[in-house]
Automatic annotation (TrEMBL):
This is Competence protein ComGF. The chain crosses the membrane at residues 12-35. Keywords: Membrane, Transmembrane, Transmembrane helix.
């Protein structure tokens, strides 16, 4: 009367299940941490953005002539078309637009301030970033 068979998991089956479950949780935790680090690195990596900015500026400056330099921007004359390169008025970016500030092509994001200077044949663009630090772009501008 006391010897009834109850269907249940054995101790060994329970231990194996717990090991598989803990292994899966460890893998998921590790992948989540790796994924969040990768997203963080991609969002804060300004070096690639800077290299792209330098390449774009060199290309633009090679095909135009500097018409005017202001404190935070400069005007480039490209075959009669006047293009403005400088800090955007309403945002935190360095952008390319026409002389009347129409059009929108951001070249760099998260820009706090911009200092543009031209001395003799050298154009200097110093960009200060919101997250700290600054970088300087120098270009030899033939007259």
């Amino acid at each position: 009367m006391w010897k009834k068979k109850i269907k249940a998991f054995s101790l060994l089956e329970t231990l194996v299940t717990l090991m598989v479950l803990s292994g899966a949780i460890l893998v998921i935790t590790g992948l989540t941490k790796l994924f969040s680090q990768e997203i963080s690195r991609a969002q804060t990596n300004t070096e690639q953005d800077w290299q792209l900015f330098v390449a774009q500026m060199r290309e633009e400056l090679a095909t135009g002539r500097i018409a005017e330099v202001k404190a935070d921007a400069f005007i480039l004359d490209k075959q009669g078309q006047k293009l403005r390169f400088g800090k955007g008025f309403s945002g935190n970016d360095f952008r390319k637009s026409n002389q009347n500030h129409r059009g929108y092509e951001p070249l760099l994001q998260h820009v706090r301030s911009v200092d543009v200077q031209k001395s003799q044949q050298q154009l200097s663009i110093r960009i200060h970033f919101e997250k700290g630090g600054s970088k300087t772009f120098l270009y030899h501008a033939p007259e």
